[in-house]
Amino acid sequence: MSALDAVRARQSWSKVEDTAPGREELLTLVAAAGRVADHSSLRPWRLIELRGPDREALGAAIAKAQGDSTPSSKPLRAPLLIAVVASYRKSEKVPRWEQEAVASGVAHTLSLLLDEAGWGVIWRTGHYTRAKAVAKAHGLDKNEELLGWLYVGGKPAGKKPGRRKAVDARKLITRMPKTGAKKAKKK
């Protein structure tokens, strides 16, 4: 399958089976995903692998962040969660927003690679991604932010992924405006 085919085929899987890639497969995919464009090669990101009881600990942290007494069951929706962390580095050349874009690029590329490898994936976020209790549960440093989680599991047999609308590229790509044409219109 070509990269174009893989991107065109990618879908979010909100429901997955209780199987997940093993550690070695995950390491191979993360090594490939880490090849995204990265100005100054700062690697301003890291990933946290959550399996088994880690997901329950996250459920308790989400409950604490939301003021609930019962742990959230959301992290139990997939056997593997991969926390996506922007890990900002000091740089004169690379602003914070660009470093976050690199972390997001790694997450998106990893989701494509997981999907192409046959795994169901969805990137989930929520207002509690910025909550102190959730950051503490993940062991985040002061220079880090949680961008969300990739929920990963087996693609259910006979089920179809979530529906996505086609992208009309003609509406989303434009040309640089001609400077003279804009000035003439303003007069």
Structure, explained:
This protein is an alpha+beta fold. The chain is 39% helix and 17% strand. Helix 2 (23-33) packs across helix 4 (96-116). It is globular and about 65 Å long. The model has no long low-confidence stretch (mean pLDDT 92).
The portion of residues assigned to helices is 25-40%
Oligomer: single chain
CATH topology: NADH Oxidase
Rg (C-alpha, Å): 19 Å
Please provide the ordered H/E string of secondary-structure elements.
Answer: HHEHEHEHEHH
Annotation, overall tally of beta strands: 4
Mean pLDDT across all residues, rounded?
92
Shape category: globular
Named CATH architecture? 3-Layer(aba) Sandwich
CA distance, first residue to last residue? 54 Å
Poorly predicted spans: none
Count of separate DSSP helical elements: 7
Strand order of the largest sheet: 1-2-4-3
CATH class reads Alpha Beta
Instruction: Give the amount of beta strand, in percent.
Output: 15-25%
- Total count of domains: 1
Which structural class fits the helix and strand makeup?
alpha+beta
CATH superfamily: NADH Oxidase
SSE order and pairing:
Layout: H1 3-9, H2 23-33, E1 45-51, H3 53-66, E2 80-87, H4 96-116, E3 119-124, H5 132-138, E4 144-154, H6 169-172, H7 179-186
Antiparallel strand pairs: 1-2, 2-4, 3-4
Helix pairs in contact: 2-4, 3-5
Identify the notable features of this structure and list them briefly.
187 residues; alpha+beta; NADH Oxidase; 4-stranded antiparallel sheet; 39% helix; globular
